[in-house]
Specification:
150 residues, two-stranded antiparallel ribbon, 7 strands, binds zinc ion, 3 domains, alpha+beta, globular, three-stranded antiparallel β-sheet
């Protein structure tokens, strides 16, 4: 389930066509995690940057979606709108993998969850963005305690 990351250079990662690599060194913001091969950026810094951008532009994104839907209305969308109470339009939910399909434990180890119903949960879109591909501390502790029972 979990494996140690192999230390590589960005050049090695590029030659192996890897999307990410691990240097074993802290980034400028003191994160000890993988780097993105294309940019060399720390994956946590990169994710935080993207999350901030999306959170700062969520209204803009939704406006674009609404404009597109207004321009190209579909019967299904109309039915969905009729079936959704007004208060529910403000609550944006998403389906999250409790153990990420390709993620990181709180210890920085890689983890691979399954795409099965019992590994899914409904959480707010914002919390799903914040969680990203990380396994929560609570989920990690539960998984570790189950491993000891086997
Ligand atoms: Zn970082």
């Amino acid at each position: 389930m979990m494996q140690q990351l192999k230390i590589r250079t960005r050049a090695e990662a590029k030659s192996l066509n890897l999307a990410r690599y691990y240097t074993g060194k802290h980034c400028i913001n003191n994160h000890l995690c993988e780097r993105t091969t294309s940019s060399g950026a720390c994956t946590i810094c990169d994710r935080e940057h993207k999350l901030n951008w999306r959170l700062n532009n969520i209204v803009k994104q939704r406006e674009c979606e609404q404009n597109y839907k207004a321009k190209f209305p579909r019967i299904r969308d109309e039915r969905m709108n009729l079936a959704t109470p007004k208060w529910a339009h403000k609550c944006v939910l998403s389906i999250d993998h409790i153990v990420p399909i390709s993620g990181i434990t709180p210890n920085g180890d890689r983890v691979s969850g399954l795409n099965v119903p019992w590994n899914l949960q409904i959480i707010s879109f914002e919390n799903n963005l914040k969680k990203g591909n990380r396994m929560t501390e609570r989920c990690y502790r539960i998984a570790c305690s189950l491993q000891h029972e086997i």
